[in-house]
Amino acid sequence: MKNFLVDTHAHLNFPDYQNDLGKVIKDSLKNGVKMIICVSSNLADAKKAIEIAKKYPGIVYAAVGIHPQKTDKNPDSPAVQLGQLAQLAQSPEVVAVGECGLDFSPAPPGEEDRPKEEQLFLFEEQIELALKLALPINVHSRKASDETLGVLEKHFNLSNRKLKGVWHCYSGGKGDIKKVTEIGFFFGIDGNLTYDSGLQNVVMQIPLEKIVLETDCPFLSPAPFRGLRNSPGNVRIITEFLANLKGASFAEVSHVTSKNAKELFSKIR
Known about the structure:
The chain is 39% helix and 16% strand. By secondary structure, the protein is an alpha/beta fold.
């Protein structure tokens, strides 16, 4: 399919799209973005992602997970939430577990810091859930690259190399590229590539065959829309920028990154 693009990390389940979701998806299709993975950060998000995927079959797919920071006010214990997540993850619309991981930076306004021990527990349990259901994981890591990589390497080895996933919005630097590649993970590249020269230098070292494209919408709008609400259609801008950065054609980058997405998220069609 000509100019076939995939947004592997979008938050269409956020309130930012409650008034015009249909138009956002329609505009994305016009921009050549034919598939969108709606990613979750808590149970309420996960249920909404599944609802959206049911409404737009073959276009939107769901990823269900619990973010390392407390993104909601759910009073249930982590163990209870994980039990509920396990049920949601068996929905046919679900193609991945996440986003999950480690975040040791201060929580944003309105959210709470989650203790490191609890973050580690949630992360490892979601990895085990993904392995049980033969799903990839979508990994969030901030100010915790070494710890995140250590957990992934451990489970990659314990699972006899069956663990698969993507390092969302990769910011681990050049030093970890080889290690992330060795455990079979892909690198999620977002709109901040268009204005972060340090990230551009890192991405030059990542093989195109290991990259999947993300918007993380409504966040991280690429230039020239930085600061505005992001949308899946902006994957086209990221693709164009990445093609120029790599000295490749738009067609090559769109083909390879979409092939990578379908390889990683094997349930999308």
